[in-house]
UniProtKB/TrEMBL annotation:
Family annotation (Pfam families): Glyco_transf_N, UDPGT
Coiled coil: none
Residue ranges constituting the Glycosyltransferase N-terminal domain according to the UniProt record: 11-254
CDD domains: GT1_Gtf-like
Family of the protein in this entry: Belongs to the UDP-glycosyltransferase family.
Keywords: Glycosyltransferase, Transferase
EC number in record: 2.4.1.-
Organism of provenance: Vigna radiata var. radiata
Record bears the keyword Ribonucleoprotein: no
PROSITE patterns: UDPGT (PS00375)
Protein name: Glycosyltransferase
InterPro entries for this protein: Glyco_transf_N (IPR058980), UDP_glucos_trans (IPR002213), UDP_glycos_trans_CS (IPR035595)
GO molecular function: UDP-glucosyltransferase activity
Length: 488
């Protein structure tokens, strides 16, 4: 290793193996790299490193290193070549989470190699909130460990507290209080994914999440992909709950320039064709529909959604994937949509169906896009709000339902349409909700608030001489902390 590398110090970053985690980790790495001369290595399984390599190669020159950690999915009862949640049926997800524990030995070898080559161990391990075991590695080697939650503060708190306390198991009521939130706050059973609803501490989900979250709570501090000014309540509560510093360095958004290969994914439509389609539409007139990188809805919901989009009479772009129960990566069959739907939408130029993966950031930043019908994964939320686009929430898994609760109750920038793949929806309800968000009354209020949030996000990341936004200051402080000796 070069002499310079020895002097600079090293950070090793370990994201969970999902695009919604890998993309913000990469952005965090870029920001730290921009501020320091530290060596940064992102460690992950070979196929995810391949994604990262193509994401990095499509943007500006970089010095972020990538390290492959040996991983064999078949040893964990997973199909070959499955190293990311994107291709996983729901039935395999718990196995997949558990399989991440096998990365401990290869991570220890990587750290030993860095230590040997540079003369001392890395300064810091930045690990995903789901990978609490990294904290044990860091502690045993005397290395600082920071936990990066790629979610917002409110969603993170709800997620970690519900797993740690299983509060819904302590009441017969559908509504329950979540420790860490004010006493008068209520969450609802329908906001829980069925795996957590059924969790009792002994099932394979609990056995992974409860200890991993407890270990992440031991880390030396938390990095959160949010902005101080947009989540005041969530941040105040999260800080109190974890009793650790929380750095708000968001929004960490993927760079639009690299979108052709964002996280190594090819879009199902040429960017130019998509932009030309949007150029022909009126300002704020298009509904963009997407459920993130790994989720899909049920066949009956898909039918109702198509009917509702058509009934609404609005223009839309919809990233379509096979419904639940079919290979999410397989071919899309016309029979999943109303008869003649795609043809009609094409002929009337009302709807653009994009297969599997769309250029999301570019769609959301186009002036014609008026609302985002989304599962409300945190990256999608940030990407939407940073462009002043209000949302229609349809949470499907993870902390998405808690994000929607905050978007509706705290921020006033969303309406909730459905919850999980279990909700029964009709075309009529879909069309009605689209009307609410796009009309001039309530819809205008939501748009105004989304624009205010976009302004906060811009200010937070702005640096004009001595004047620095909150996320710039947090990033400075984070770097100072990483460079300072770890307290004994
Ligand atoms: N994404 C995209 N095109 C798609 C679907 C997803 O570019 O068709 C990107 C999206 O811009 C976001 C990420 O994938 O950066 C999805 O992250 P999110 O947290 O919203 O949801 P997750 O996929 O983790 O459920």
């Amino acid at each position: 290793m070069a002499e310079a590398a020895k002097k600079n110090g090293h950070i090793v970053m370990i994201p969970f193996m999902a695009h919604g985690h890998i993309i913000p980790f990469l952005q965090l790495a870029r920001q730290i790299q921009h501020k320091t001369t530290l060596n940064i290595t992102i460690a992950n399984t070979p196929l995810n490193i391949q994604y990262l390599r193509s994401a990095l190669s499509s943007t500006s020159p970089h010095q972020i290193r990538l390290a492959e950690l040996h991983f064999d999915p078949t040893q964990h009862g997973l199909p070959p070549n499955v190293e990311n949640t994107e291709k996983l049926p729901l039935s395999h997800i718990a196995k997949f989470f558990n399989s991440s524990l096998s990365l401990e030995a290869p991570l220890r070898s990587l750290i030993a190699q860095i230590t040997e080559e540079e003369g001392y161990p890395p300064l810091c391990l930045i690990s995903d909130v789901f990978l609490g075991w990294v904290n044990s590695v860091a502690t045993s080697l005397g290395i600082r460990n920071l936990c990066f939650t790629t979610c917002g503060a409110y969603g993170t708190l709800a997620y970690i507290s519900i797993w740690s306390n299983l509060p819904h198991r302590k009441t017969d009521s559908d509504e329950f209080w979540v420790p860490g939130f004010p006493q008068n706050y209520r969450f609802h059973r329908t906001q829980l994914h069925k795996f957590i609803r059924q969790a009792d501490g002994t099932d394979e989900w609990s056995q992974f999440f409860i200890p991993q979250i407890a270990l992440s709570m031991n880390s030396d501090g938390w990095i959160c992909n949010t902005v101080e000014e947009i989540e005041p309540l969530g941040l105040q509560l999260l800080r109190k709950y974890v009793q650790r510093p929380v750095w708000t360095v968001g929004p960490l958004l993927p760079s639009a320039k690299g979108s052709k290969h964002r996280a190594g994914k090819e879009s199902g439509i040429a960017l130019e064709a998509c932009m030309e389609w949007l150029d022909l539409k009126d300002e704020n007139s298009v509904v963009y529909v997407s459920f993130g990188s790994q989720n899909t809805i049920s066949a009956s919901q898909m039918m109702a959604l198509a009917e509702g989009l058509e009934e609404s009479g609005r223009s839309f772009i919809w990233v379509v994937r096979p419904p639940v129960g079919f290979d999410i990566d397989g071919e899309f069959k016309e029979e999943w949509l109303p008869k003649g739907f795609e043809e009609r939408m094409r002929d009337t130029e009302k709807g653009l169906l994009v297969r599997k993966w769309g250029p999301q950031l570019e769609i959301l930043s186009h002036k014609s896009t008026g609302v985002f019908l989304s599962h409300c994964g945190w990256n999608s939320v940030l990407e939407s709000l940073s462009n002043g686009v209000p949302l229609i929430g349809w949470p499907l898994a993870a902390e998405q339902a808690y994000n929607v609760k905050m978007l509706v109750e705290e921020m006033g920038v969303a309406v909730e349409l459905a919850r999980t793949v279990e909700s029964t929806i009709t075309g009529e309800v879909v069309a009605k909700v689209i009307d609410i968000v796009m009309d001039n009354g309530k819809g205008k209020d939501m748009k105004d608030r989304a624009n205010e949030i976009a302004a906060h996000m811009r200010d937070a990341t702005t640096e004009k001489g001595e004047e620095k936004g909150s996320s710039v200051r947090a990033m400075d402080d984070l770097v100072t902390t990483i460079l300072s000796p770890k307290p004994l």
